[in-house]
Amino acid sequence: MSKPDDTKLIERCIEGDRQAFETLLIQYEKPVFNAAYRMLNNKEDASDVTQTVFLKVYENFDSFDPSRRFFSWVYRITLNESINVLGKQKRLEPLQHEPADDGKSPEQEVASAELSAEIQAALMTVKTDYRTVVILKHFLGCSYMEISEVLEIPEKTVKSRLYSARQMLKDALTRSGT
Amino acid sequence: MTIEQKYIDLINADIDGEIEHADKGGLDAFLAENEEGRAMHAELVTLCGSIEAIEAISPPPHLRHVIVNSVKPTPAKTESPGVLEMLFASPALKYSGTFAAGVLLTLSIVSSDQISNQAFDDITGLVGTISDPISGNLVNSIAVDNAQIAGKVSLRSTGSMLILDFDLVANRPVEIEAEYADRTIWFNGFAQLESSGTTISAKSGSVTLGMEGKRRYAVYLQNGGERSVTVNLRFVAGGEVVHEASLKYEPEE
Fold first, then answer.
1. Which residues of B touch A170 (CB under 8 A)?
2. Is the pLDDT of residue A12 over 60?
3. Distance CA B112, CA B103 (A)
4. Percent of all residues in chain A with a pLDDT value above 90, rounded to a whole number
5. CB atoms within 10 A of CB B155
6. Is the pTM of this model over 0.80?
7. Are strands B137-145 and B149-158 parallel, antiparallel or unpaired?
8. Contact call for A43 and B60, based on CB within 8 A
9. Distance separating alpha carbons of residues B183 and B14, to the nearest angstrom
10. Size of interface A-B (CB pairs under 8 A)
11. How many Å apart are CA A41 and CA A43, to the nearest integer?
12. ipTM score
């Protein structure tokens, strides 16, 4: 998950090397944006969260615990920032799905967008504690151990939440007729 | 018949590729003789396959520049956050809270002889007409992705008001000229999220803004005739044009 040279890049970032920061940004921008998007179901909010995450990372490099892996720190900030945004949104209006545009044929695009929309809609019905586990596992490709590290919960809890989340997703998709 | 929790866990672990070697044989034997177990395994394989088939979405192209241009040259030490940092930390913060400050700042910056229209002199009218600046409908927007300046400029409309909404980051002083050839369009106000940092001057047919760093601000144009309007934007850094774009408004029939 974490690239072996992340530690060196972080050391350079602490010394004020912007190029090193850009390298980390290039590596993690897409997963951070996608994690935020799957949490929030809104591209603008996901962009805002991505900006906030990297600004926080940059400003707090010197407090980064080198015994942890960089990805677990970044993903944890991402999920926490997304949860903060969700908390603010709860007072406003229901989330609306934004279809992704990924350059496929019209037929593929429709089928893929429908499936993506249905799964995303189902994901949004799952409580955030469970949604975070699904995002880390299926969208960011983390192992049980890595999820445990990001969320700072035991692996046993990771498994239990993941299995329950899948059941919730299955139920939501069944209710929607998928 | 229900499936024992032990086998539910094993089925999930198998799908995740995290089953212990020692447990794999036991699961296979269970699945070989349990139809319900096989059905559950198949359902979960389909579900997980569908989730993982969803392609990752690319972030907006300008986002990386926005982030890079937003960070300070060296990492900040343990200082308590200032007002601006707190504002930056809340991207969703609306303009309205700082609108009055924006209006006052504008009044202090824009000299009255630069304004060709009297609407701007009426402060009460200005505040009254722009009670909720963010609620304008999005007409269109452009992304700016340049080494000197990056971000987004959107054109919004509400009634006879057009709003140019700037969300930009510049790593050096940049001047932005917004030119609208139609002289019946009036500059009618300015608001910004930050309490300072953006300068503005207006004359008939154009507005010029100066900025550096991360800035969010809006320029209000009165389109009394509700006509088609094209706003031409020119971004100038170090005396050179670094980006040009246009935003167009077409009134609904």
1. 43-44, 47
2. yes
3. 14
4. 62
5. 24
6. no
7. antiparallel
8. yes
9. 70
10. 115
11. 7
12. 0.83
